[in-house]
Write a structure and sequence with these properties.
The structure is a homodimer. Chain A has helices at residues 4-9, 15-24, 28-36, 77-89, 104-114, 123-135, 143-156, 169-177, 187-199, 204-207, 209-219, 240-258, 273-286, 307-321, 340-360, 364-378, 382-388, 392-400, 418-423, and strands at 40-41, 56-57, 63-68, 94-97, 119-121, 160-163, 222-225, 263-267, 292-295, 325-327. The termini of chain A are far apart. In chain A, β7, α12 and β8 (263-267) form a beta-alpha-beta unit. By secondary structure, chain A is of the alpha/beta class. The first copy, chain A, contains 19 helices and 10 strands. In chain A, the strands form 2 sheets. Chain A has an 8-stranded parallel β-barrel, surrounded by 6 helices. A two-stranded antiparallel ribbon of chain A has the order 1-2. Chain A has 2 domains: 42-362, Radical SAM ThiC family, central domain (TIM Barrel, Alpha-Beta Barrel); 365-422, no CATH class. The model of chain A has no long low-confidence stretch (mean pLDDT 97).
């Protein structure tokens, strides 16, 4: 069966392409071209119908992803569905289910059933947990165990897979030769590295990448090539292991593109402000125009409890320089499994970063919003400002908690409201 | 009497210079040189002894300011003292008292008495309020009314003054010729503009800038040249009125420096990410090396309720490119007078931005912190991580609310903690 890329390469459109072109206010032919070149992806498993699909990549508005999912300490399906709905309500364009606790299958199916946005997973998690149950350790999982999970999840409708195929004997060798402070901080990356070292075998997702592509083609799944060697501290940022893996992911991205499979590249992690531009430039250089999906990045390691802010700074800059897709970071990062409030805070911080990136990239849709808000502010149209905010309930409560004597001003300036002063000229 | 700049220009040190050199881990002679050139200021009224003074400018760590103060809607001296203490507790390097409600004199004296950090004010506020009481309108205040307040506040120990001397007949003319969406959004700027237009006279703080310098010299007060024409929406950013005022402020800064008066320049405001670098470059070009004090900047206008995050993005970038001093923005911005929780959130967001800027600028002190945190993280030293965070109480409560079965991991990953997995190799 033809994939979206195959169809785009014939110059034809689909209803999905039409929908995205309209949403992004972009010419359909141009969008078809971008998809055919691998510069835009639209994650959508052909088995699933997504109410709110999204385009990720060049000339698209910057998208954000929210991670949800159980852990062995915290298994609450209803809670996860609430997180899903919270994330979507506050504007997550996609959601990843990173569950590693409880009945993964049941949780994933429920999330897929409840989600109006594309859903991504990291199949190695389910494979590891199955192997732990079956053999007592995830280190004993076989190549087939891994690919069985890929097939099951594909069949169930997952829209995009994070595949840690950049952790290989060679890149691990690079890590040994160029030691870093934090080693591997990616969960899937660490699992894969342990597996390779224990079994003295190559990473099946790399060795049998053709099988990955086959499954991706069959269900039209978008691949997100995971950065298992992403820096987990700014001290490791942009080091040799990270770049060695990025180059490898670039080669695999090219292969996916040639096979008509949609593909994007995951990026760091922890990066100081002055290295972010370079990280984007390197990704663009090595990865054949594949969209860049950055995980933050956090611009400092010391923001514990406020990492959504450290990440918003990094995400805003990354988006301005060309990152296409931002993974949110919550205030719970490095601390605990996020709760619903954490999810909300993470999504809003990430939305602000994405929107700031859109503005910097000259999105007319984004600039129109800021103009509308500013006019409402100048005219002291408070209800309009509140309605336009990322979290109208919070803004409404804020204003209600502090009512000014001068009705159309606020309690900051009262009579000395600069807008009012200037109106009186 | 000699000012700090006068003394530095003789090559001599003072106990204040010694203290700052030690704090910043910088050679005393180099610091003396930077002060003599006007590239570093140390706000400290000679009438006041400050427990925690700070250096602002080149080669200093990036500093942050928190604004507190009453409004006509909200007059609570005890509340303001609590805000002061909260701001200092979470790391504000300076505090500005922007009170425009109640007994300004009493509030300011109390804040000065309670503050361990430098205190700044905007004297035109008190002058306006006095005039409103005396004449029924601030528009009737005289030149002498303004300078009387400067003298009183100087005598009482205020360490730095924001002076809106960039609002002049000429710059207002520029504003008329190049209309913008939001006009004037600076409170002091709007008051001054109204006064000039109503009285058809020049801005006394510009016309009699020599008098300002005289008072500043007498008390060794640092001047912060306010940007009354700062953009209040990204649509107005970097426009002609803003730059016209910046050039004028640069000329006045040079005059202050020649007179041995410490001076810094205030900057925007609302600026999209892609224009921040240019704003810093222009300030450096026009302002003779005077430290740059940016108000955020907010990178989008639509963050109502979360403007501390919009500002953290802008502040981090500005600091990385060379801004020296960041004015915090709270979640209450554009909405209401901030409460104590708002002050806390604003300070922490701004501290993260300042620290990220320090990292980008290569501060060894800053990098040492991130290294220490990362080592604690790798070793799962939870108490150390919590103690090092910006808000240990929040981090402690976060962890306590979600206790992992695997004691040294967290509830995000449990057994699959990448740090633990990699330790097991």
């Amino acid at each position: 069966m033809k994939t979206l890329v195959d169809i785009a390469r014939t110059g034809k459109s689909t209803s999905l392409i039409g929908k995205i072109a309209k949403k992004e206010n972009i010419d359909k032919k141009l969008l078809i071209k971008l998809i055919s070149e691998g510069k835009v992806v639209i994650p959508a498993n052909r088995k699933r119908s997504i109410k709110s699909p999204c385009g990720i990549g060049k000339m698209m508005r910057v998208k954000i992803n929210a991670n949800i999912g159980t852990s062995s300490d915290n298994i609450d399906l209803r809670g996860e569905i609430k997180k899903l709905k919270t994330a979507i309500f506050f504007g997550a364009d996609t959601v990843m289910d990173l569950s590693v606790g409880g009945n993964i299958r049941k949780i994933q199916n429920s999330i897929l059933a409840h989600s109006s946005v594309p859903i991504g997973t990291v199949p190695i998690y389910e494979a590891s947990i199955n192997a732990q149950k079956k053999y007592g350790s995830f280190l004993r999982m076989s190549k087939n165990d891994i690919f069985d999970v890929l097939k099951t999840q594909a069949e169930n409708g997952v829209d995009f897979f994070t595949i840690h195929c950049g952790i290989t004997k060679k890149t691990l060798n690079c890590l040994d030769n160029y030691p870093r402070l934090m080693g591997i901080v990616s969960r899937g990356g660490a699992m894969t590295a342990r597996w390779i070292r224990k079994n003295k075998k190559e990473n099946p997702l790399f060795e049998y990448f053709d099988n990955v592509l086959k499954i991706a083609r069959e269900y039209d799944i978008t691949l997100s090539l995971g950065d298992g060697l992403r820096p987990g501290t700014i001290l490791d940022a942009t080091d040799r292991p990270q770049i060695a893996e990025l180059k490898l992911l670039g080669m695999l991205a090219e292969k996916a593109q040639k096979n008509g499979v949609q593909v994007m590249i995951e990026g760091p992690g922890h990066v100081p402000i002055n290295q972010i531009k370079r990280n984007i430039t390197l990704q663009k250089k090595y990865c054949y125009g594949a969209p860049f999906y950055v995980l933050g990045p956090l611009v400092t390691d010391i923001g514990l409890g406020y990492d959504h802010i450290s990440a918003a700074i990094g995400s805003g800059i990354a988006a301005a320089y060309g990152a296409d897709y931002l993974c949110f970071v919550t205030p719970a990062e490095h601390l605990k499994l996020p709760d619903i409030e954490d999810i909300k805070q993470g999504v809003i911080a990430s939305k602000i970063a994405a929107h700031s990136g859109d503005l910097a990239r000259g999105s007319t849709q984004a600039w129109a919003k800021d103009k509308m808000m500013s006019i409402a502010r100048k005219k002291r149209k408070w209800q309009k400002q509140i309605a336009m905010s990322f979290d109208p309930e919070k803004a409404r409560m804020g204003r209600a908690s502090s009512i000014p004597k001068v009705k159309d001003a606020c309690t900051m300036c009262g009579d000395f409201c600069s807008m009012k002063l200037m109106d009186g000229k």
